[in-house]
């Protein structure tokens, strides 16, 4: 298992629970640290992936370079990410893809990952699990790793919450 003390992983208990919105809010809160954002997905997209850095039969690692596509990765740039990467990888090849990613990107920098599977390979500085109490139970097994389980009421796009803010402040004070 990789230990990345300057990283934050965000996962969710299902689709549309607010993972990407939370990552965007985190990026805005961490803008002074020039964070990198990485979206990891187990399925392959047909839309423009950005600049392809590594492509194999099992994964694609690309870098987002546009702020006007409306894609999550494009929005991460708009919200303050210094660099944004998109990793499309079959779950069984995530470890291999992650090793390749760290060969091209300094994984010792501040990085915010949006991924449910990465927590099984990486020990981050912080791990947030997002749910919306809609009954979606995907990834419930990840609760055991979470520093905080966030129940998203979808009312606050900035996720203003004293527990979240305290964890983030304690996290950044270490560096």
Describe what you observe in this structure.
With 175 residues, this protein is an alpha/beta fold. The protein has one domain (2-173): 3-Layer(aba) Sandwich (Rossmann fold). It is built from four helices and eight strands. It has helices at 19-29, 72-78, 94-104, 162-173, and strands at 2-12, 36-41, 51-55, 59-63, 83-89, 111-114, 122-131, 148-151. It has an eight-stranded mixed sheet, with helices on both faces. Strand 3 (51-55) and strand 4 form a beta hairpin. The longest helix has 12 residues, at 162-173. The chain is globular and about 40 Å long. The two termini are 22 Å apart. The mean pLDDT is 89.
Topology readout:
Elements: E1 2-12, H1 19-29, E2 36-41, E3 51-55, E4 59-63, H2 72-78, E5 83-89, H3 94-104, E6 111-114, E7 122-131, E8 148-151, H4 162-173
Parallel strand pairs: 1-6, 1-7, 2-5, 2-6, 7-8
Antiparallel strand pairs: 3-4, 4-5
């Amino acid at each position: 298992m990789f230990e990345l003390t300057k990283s934050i992983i965000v996962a969710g208990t299902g689709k549309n629970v607010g993972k990407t919105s939370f990552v965007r809010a985190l990026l805005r809160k961490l803008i002074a640290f020039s964070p990198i954002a990485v979206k990891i997905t187990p399925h392959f997209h047909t839309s423009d992936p950005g600049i392809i850095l590594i492509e194999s039969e099992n994964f694609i690692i690309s870098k987002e370079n546009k702020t006007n596509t409306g894609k999550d990765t494009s929005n991460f740039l708009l919200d303050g990410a210094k660099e944004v990467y998109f990793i499309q990888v079959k779950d069984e090849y995530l470890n291999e893809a992650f090793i390749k990613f760290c060969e091209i990107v300094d994984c010792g920098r501040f990085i915010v990952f949006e991924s449910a599977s990465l927590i099984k390979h990486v020990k981050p500085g912080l791990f947030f699990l997002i749910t919306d109490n809609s009954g979606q139970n995907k990834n419930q097994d990840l609760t055991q790793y979470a520093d905080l389980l966030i129940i998203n009421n979808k009312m606050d796009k900035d996720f203003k919450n004293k527990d979240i803010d305290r964890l983030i402040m304690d996290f950044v004070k270490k560096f």
